[in-house]
């Protein structure tokens, strides 16, 4: 009889912990379902409702009875942290991969490792494999842990199954976050110079690298929960969300805030989420997660507690009341739960990753701004090939189409006696604006050297400034000599000045994409609240939490393509469907020249001569051709083609241009901005097998570069690259009153936007003035 009373209580508690038993456990003893503490007073249930657990039995009685039922399972319940806490790359963003490539002569990158409270870490394991061009005797890897060098290792490992173990001094590991920096010095075995540097690479396997741990159980708490989340993310598993009672809508504010906090504490690593069945089984040991989030109902106030599930995973159990949690209370609620990992040692600016815009890169037009204030301190290189990219962000209403100049005043110094043809290239948004030879003044600081470039190369939002140095080897046909020395230094005191602009905008995808957040997204008419909870959390983690004045994205599945609005355009939707249904354009490698039989290059002997064909034209057109050829060295076909070219420039068929461009594209999704009257509205069409969360991850990754969507139509290719089409006839929109102060700049921008239109307007004014003058002359003569 006593067992009959205990059994319902055990079942209720098991549901609260949301056990996910692995399949392999069914072959032997079942895993233990640990009973949470019952010492806290139970909240009273509403009238007519049954309490979650029977308060008749004490915790000791239930624990003793449970032990008697399964006496051999207690040891199995304390699932230990795996033998390896993996590396997390700081530059993984929303699209992490299993490995990261370090290329060049002196690459350096940083990682994080998250350890549980009671973990006993030992060595640091780095799994790496290098290219065949790396000279092992002269190439080395240096590893730094929490600011202290823990070892160096000769490069040249070509076996992907081997790894290097570094001994870590006692006391250097710490619970929670540990910072790892890997720096390489790579030397080509045959050559020296910029071309040779491109052949030098070493891959770091992130899933097989990290802290080697002794077996220790996870302890319920925020730090161990974070270590479990980091472990799962490091091996490519999304965060599991279990919601057997459908409480996600009521818990939405807390879940959204949690997604943001996880991005912060994992140093910008964007997590994805997946819904899992609390009663399902895992068919693979690799699918066993170390941490997960479970929602359970409660009739009292909302609570949160870390517990250990039946499979040993740490579970963040969020008890949600029927009325939910107000958005204003979500932050303080999680502050209490995650207080151990919200210190300055853990947190990171999540907005920088989610929006792709580092606040430091924002600059004011018309004012000199130092590179150091933009996030580029003094930079020195010892490599023969060097490139440094720096983003700077202009205001959203900035637009210059005239020939105004921006100026970079560069402070730099380079070594004496560098080889001939040593040079420094300076690029703006991919365009080379200056080439500086690195010879003649070596060893002397060159201050405020002016480099002017056209401001119309720049755009509103993020722009890219690049420094690229190419220093030949001396000699080039031998390995670089030992003893590296600084070759070039670019000072952070260099300044960049961009001319001011009246508040003008060009409609397109660029600004709405950067202003896109997770709050204003719908799919086939279903808003964010109607999306699956795991997808919603992934969107919040990827794109950022909702903000005022954010742009709104309306997504359509492929089957609902007919609902896509075309706005001011009349583009055939079939052309968009063709983009999403064409097979990926992945060319297969052709046979090597020696493997070709009976083939020669097409242009080996020049073009093939053929007999002219009768074009069916009559004798009059042929006679006209002869006359035009004799007088103007042309014919009727060429005249017609030129007329069509001029006509296309004066009166372009925008829809036909867009359709021709779409006919050459193929991809996973199509992003559009076709209604200029709605500057914050963008539409998305998903391919037949493309998920909304995949496109959101691609948008998040693109926002960290200048290669994101722009114009009116953008296609996400199968290679992850956005390719865009812009309507050249877009009219700039003036966002401020026209005054005498800005009249000249506004007029100049419109004249540069469309010289033909501007000329036609001026000609019209001149014609009207001439007619008025002619009328005055006629009237005057009549009077006389």
Q: Please report the number of helical segments.
A: 17
Q: What class, by secondary structure content? A: alpha+beta
Q: Averaging pLDDT over every residue, what do you get?
A: 79
Please write the CATH class name of the largest domain: Alpha Beta
CATH-defined fold name of the largest domain: Chitobiase, domain 2
Share of residues in strands: 15-25%
Rg over CA atoms: 33 Å
User: What's the shape?
Assistant: globular
Terminal-residue CA separation: 129 Å
Per CATH, the architecture of the largest domain is 2-Layer Sandwich
Oligomerization status of the protein chains: single chain
Subcellular location: Cell inner membrane
Biased composition (Low complexity): 44-53
Transmembrane segments: 753-778
Domain Cellulose synthase subunit B-like C-terminal: 649-781
Give an overview in words.
- It is a single chain.
- With 784 residues, the chain is α+β, with helices and mostly antiparallel strands.
- The protein has five domains: 1-77 and 218-348, Chitobiase, domain 2; 84-214, Sandwich (Jelly Rolls); 359-505, Galactose-binding domain-like (Jelly Rolls, Sandwich); 510-584 and 653-725, Chitobiase, domain 2, CATH 3.30.379.30; 754-783.
- Helices cover 25% and strands 25% of the residues.
- The chain contains 17 helices and 33 strands.
- The strands form seven sheets. Strands 16, 17, 19, 22, 24 and 25 form a six-stranded antiparallel β-sheet that branches. Strands 27-28-30-29-31-32 form a six-stranded mixed β-sheet, sandwiched between helices.
- α6 crosses α10 (533-543).
- The radius of gyration is 33 Å and the shape is globular.
- The protein starts with a helix and ends with a helix.
- 35% of the residues are buried.
């Amino acid at each position: 009889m006593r067992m009959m009373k205990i059994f319902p209580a055990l079942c209720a508690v098991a549901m609260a912990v949301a056990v996910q038993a692995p399949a392999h456990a069914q072959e032997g003893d079942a895993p233990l379902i640990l009973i949470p503490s019952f010492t806290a007073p139970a909240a009273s249930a509403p009238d007519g409702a049954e309490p979650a657990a029977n308060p008749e039995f004490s915790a000791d009685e239930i624990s003793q009875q449970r032990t008697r039922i399964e006496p051999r399972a207690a040891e199995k319940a304390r699932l230990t942290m795996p033998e390896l806490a993996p590396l997390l790359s700081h530059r993984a963003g929303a699209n992490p991969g299993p490995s990261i490539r370090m290329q060049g002569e002196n690459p350096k990158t940083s990682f994080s490792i998250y350890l549980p409270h009671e973990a006993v870490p030992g060595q640091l394991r780095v799994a790496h494999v290098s290219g065949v061009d790396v000279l092992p005797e002269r190439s080395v890897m240096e590893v730094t842990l929490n600011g202290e060098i823990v070892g160096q290792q000769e490069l040249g490992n070509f076996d992907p199954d081997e790894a290097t173990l570094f001994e870590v001094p006692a006391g250097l590991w710490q619970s929670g976050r540990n910072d790892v920096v890997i720096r390489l010095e790579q030397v080509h075995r045959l050559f020296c110079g910029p071309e040779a540097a491109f052949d030098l690479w070493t891959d770091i396997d992130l899933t097989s690298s990290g802290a080697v741990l002794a077996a220790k159980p996870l302890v319920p708490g925020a730090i161990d929960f974070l270590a479990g989340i980091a472990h799962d993310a490091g091996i490519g598993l999304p965060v599991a969300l279990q919601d057997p009672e459908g409480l996600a809508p009521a818990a939405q504010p807390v879940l959204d805030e949690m997604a943001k906090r996880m991005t912060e504490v994992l140093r910008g690593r964007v997590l994805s989420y997946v819904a899992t069945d609390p009663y399902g089984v895992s068919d693979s040991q690799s699918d066993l997660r170390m941490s997960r989030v479970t929602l359970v109902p409660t009739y009292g106030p909302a609570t949160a507690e870390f517990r250990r599930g039946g499979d040993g995973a740490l579970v963040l159990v969020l008890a949600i009341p029927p009325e939910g949690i107000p958005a204003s209370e979500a932050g303080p609620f999680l502050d209490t739960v995650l207080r151990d990992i919200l210190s300055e040692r853990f947190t990171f600016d999540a907005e920088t990753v989610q929006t792709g815009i580092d606040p430091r890169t924002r600059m004011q037009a018309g004012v000199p701004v130092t590179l150091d204030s933009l996030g580029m301190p003094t930079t020195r290189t010892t490599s023969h090939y060097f490139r440094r990219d720096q983003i700077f962000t202009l205001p959203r209403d900035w637009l210059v189409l005239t020939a105004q100049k921006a100026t970079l005043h560069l402070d730099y110094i380079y070594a004496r006696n560098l080889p001939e043809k040593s040079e420094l290239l300076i690029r703006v948004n991919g365009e080379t604006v200056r080439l500086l030879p690195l010879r003649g003044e070596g060893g002397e600081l060159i201050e405020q050297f002016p480099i002017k470039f056209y401001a119309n190369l720049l755009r509103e939002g993020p722009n890219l400034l690049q420094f690229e140095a190419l220093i030949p080897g001396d000699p080039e046909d031998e390995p670089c000599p030992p003893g590296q020395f600084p070759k070039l230094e670019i000072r952070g005191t260099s300044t960049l000045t961009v001319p001011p602009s009246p508040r003008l905008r060009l409609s397109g995808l660029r600004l709405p994409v950067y202003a896109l957040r997770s709050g204003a997204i719908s799919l086939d008419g279903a808003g964010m609240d109607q999306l699956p909870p795991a997808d919603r959390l992934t969107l919040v983690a990827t794109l950022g939490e909702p903000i005022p004045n954010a742009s709104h994205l309306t997504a359509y599945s492929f089957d609902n393509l007919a609902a896509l609005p075309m706005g001011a355009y009349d583009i055939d939707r079939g052309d968009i469907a063709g983009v999403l249904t064409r097979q990926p354009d992945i060319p297969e490698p052709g046979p090597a020249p020696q493997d070709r039989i009976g083939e020669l290059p097409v242009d080996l002997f020049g073009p093939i001569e053929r007999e002219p064909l009768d074009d069916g034209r009559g004798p009059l057109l042929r006679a006209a051709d002869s006359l035009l050829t004799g007088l103007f060295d042309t014919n009727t076909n060429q005249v017609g083609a030129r007329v069509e070219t001029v006509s296309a420039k004066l009166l372009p068929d925008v829809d036909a241009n867009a359709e021709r461009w779409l006919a050459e594209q193929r991809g996973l999704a199509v992003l559009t901005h076709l209604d200029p009257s709605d500057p914050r509205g963008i539409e998305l069409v998903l391919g037949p097998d493309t998920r909304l969360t995949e496109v959101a991850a691609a948008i998040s990754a693109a926002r960290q570069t200048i290669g994101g969507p722009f114009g009116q139509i953008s296609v996400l290719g199968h290679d992850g690259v956005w390719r865009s089409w812009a309507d050249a006839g877009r009219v700039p929109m003036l966002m401020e009153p026209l005054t005498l102060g800005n009249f000249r700049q506004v007029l100049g921008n419109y004249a540069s936007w469309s010289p033909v239109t501007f000329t036609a307007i001026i000609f019209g004014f001149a014609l009207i003035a001439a007619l008025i003058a002619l009328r005055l002359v006629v009237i005057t003569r009549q009077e006389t």
